[in-house]
Write a structure and sequence with these properties.
Layout: H1 2-20, H2 24-37, E1 43-55, E2 58-71, E3 75-84, E4 88-94, E5 97-118, E6 122-141, E7 146-167, E8 172-185, E9 196-205, H3 207-215
Antiparallel strand pairs: 1-2, 1-9, 2-3, 3-5, 4-5, 5-6, 6-7, 7-8, 8-9
Amino acid sequence: MIIIRTYFLLLFFLFPFSFYCQTNQQVGIFEEDFRTSFKTKPKLDIKLDTRFSFIAASDIRTTGVKLGLSFNSKFKTGLGYNRLISPSKSSIIKDDVKYKADLYYEYISPYLEYIYHNSKKWEFNISIQFGVGRGYYQYFNTLTEAKEKINQSFILSYEPSMLIDYKIVKWVGLGSGIGYRLILYKNKNISEHLTSPVFIFKVKIYLGEIVRTFTGKEIQAE
């Protein structure tokens, strides 16, 4: 059983890159990009994104910010922070009393992106990110007349995705994509099924272009 679980975890981890590398030529390009890109001086990369997914058949949104480094405009890696824009409506039972509750979910997300096509306006990339965070319910206790947190859970997720960015002006770009959030671990305190397809919309800020336009100076940022 452990071997089978390990195999599927590796499969999900490698899927975005194996999906792209379907021919020997693509494998060679990927290996060459990987070998040379991390030898270059990195540039700062900043992104804001909104992710649409589903919890308990309800449409929910997470918002996040990513701060990382871009290596040769081919590989990007860094750290993000994400949370539900608004809590998901739910209910809990405490002391045999049923309460209306809000589900909160927030996590940090180490990520890695590979840009396999890059032009003046367009950027096509595949991405993987892990989510390390927590979920909990918050309800109004009528006995204490205060909001209380209950049923906290550590949550670990994995999310592969395919993304397209378009540079609308030299300072700002828009992006969209599709992915899948796979919950690797959560305890029984959180009853909602959090594994779900994910639809992504993001705004990319070209900080280097902004500084160059208004100050004439060059900084190590895209």
